[in-house]
Design goal:
By secondary structure, this protein is an alpha+beta fold. 47% of the residues lie in helices and 15% in strands.
């Protein structure tokens, strides 16, 4: 595999860089680079800019609004966006539901929902995890009973990321109790404004309202909102999760984080010398950089392998494990570089407009919050322990 960019790919990279310089709002990039919280309008704003340029759904087929980019061009785009400080696109509609609808949805569903995802008409959230059904997702208990032209849904979902903003949710529901767990699950699209749905916030350690509980009480869902066949939802769920896990790898985000760490390590002093010259700290930075380079190569291979419209296989589990470990290590080193200045936590400092003097380095305010919040990465999307089981079975044949 040739890891050098061709002249055409270098030209494409220059085009992306020029676009980001002209179109990425400076205030958004500043928020991202300073680790500040992004609001709904911030995320919708960047979504709209990319959609107007035609670069939003770069992994979709061209017939449905995709770009037709190669695996390398997708990689270049994601990496340059991360390095420029662009907000990460909310993945639920675009990167999770979209590919499922393209592969398994009816023509009517594609024509209805895909343009709305691109235009930002709908904000989707994911209804997978339940209390007691996280890594063991097939044990889910939320039920959908068909009555005429509707399903009646009852149950609960939890850890629903950004569900407070969503008007739509795609859910796994149990439609058959008489077969093995995986064979009795269906994939439903549910309007969050339907009577009987209640969203309750879960406030995280940093005070942020990022996740939620969602309760369903006799919620009526049109049968037309069933994706694919009844009781076949586990197939669609696994297909979606491979995209989620590949996306979680976050090569571009880790690359940008590593560059930020290097800059901090050159600036922060330890015993009269830059922290980058401390042998132990420098060794940890070198180790994570080597691991990131290895993961970058693996990520390109996985994406290239499915260039013809396939889906990532168990390799996505490898990316999920290594990607989350690298991201966590980068954030751990940034927090360590801040030393005692990472300890004070001023929630207001994580929002734009905070005018009080910084405590220590400018990055100190969000260093601990980012570190603790991102401990979740090795758990969500299927815990890393589960991913190792997948690798042992599907790749090693154990």
């Amino acid at each position: 595999m040739d890891l050098q960019f061709t002249p055409e790919e270098q030209a494409f990279r220059a085009e992306v860089q020029a676009f980001l310089k002209e179109q990425l709002p400076a205030d958004l990039a500043s928020k991202v680079q300073r680790g500040l919280h992004l609001g709904k309008q911030d995320l919708e704003r960047w979504h709209a800019i990319l959609n107007q340029r035609g670069w939003l759904a770069n992994h979709w087929p061209k017939e449905w609004g995709g770009t037709g980019w190669s695996a390398v061009e997708k990689y270049i785009f994601e990496n340059e966006c991360a390095m420029a400080g662009a907000p990460r696109i909310v993945p639920f509609g675009l990167s999770m539901l979209g590919p499922v609808l393209i592969k398994y949805g009816s023509e009517a569903q594609k024509k209805l929902w895909l343009p709305r995802i691109l235009n930002g008409d709908d904000w989707w959230c994911q209804g997978y995890s339940e209390p007691g059904s996280g890594s063991d997702l097939a044990s889910l208990k939320t039920t959908a009973v068909r009555e005429g032209d509707h399903y009646i849904v009852n149950g609960q979902k939890t850890w629903t990321t950004l569900g407070q903003h969503a008007n739509m949710i795609f859910c796994l529901v149990r439609t058959n109790r008489e077969v093995k767990a995986q064979s009795g699950i269906s994939f439903l699209l549910i309007d969050m404004n339907t009577p009987g749905i209640e969203v309750r916030p879960i406030i995280l350690l940093d005070g942020e309202h990022e996740v939620n509980e969602v309760f369903f009480t006799d919620v009526k869902v049109p049968v037309a909102n069933l994706v694919g066949e009844q009781d076949k939802g586990w197939t669609y769920a696994k297909y979606l999760l491979t995209y989620e896990r590949t996306n979680i790898a976050g090569v571009g985000l880790s690359t940008a984080g590593l560059e930020k760490l290097k800059a901090i390590a050159q600036r922060v002093q330890c015993n009269g010398l830059p922290l980058a010259q401390d042998p132990l700290f420098a060794a940890r930075m070198a180790k994570v950089e080597i691991e990131l380079e290895n993961m970058r190569t693996t990520n390109l291979r996985v994406i290239a392998a499915v260039e013809g419209g396939g889906v990532p296989g168990a390799e996505s589990s490898m990316l999920k494990i290594r990607g989350t470990q690298i991201r966590q290590e980068v954030l751990s080193l940034i927090r360590r570089a801040m030393g005692p200045y990472a300890a004070p936590y001023v929630e207001a400092a994580l929002y734009d407009g905070y005018a009080q003097p910084a405590i220590g380095e400018p990055e100190a305010a969000g260093a601990a919050a980012a570190y603790f919040n991102n401990r979740k990465q090795s758990i969500f999307g299927g815990s890393n322990e589960i991913q190792r089981n997948i690798i042992s079975k599907m790749i090693l044949g154990l």
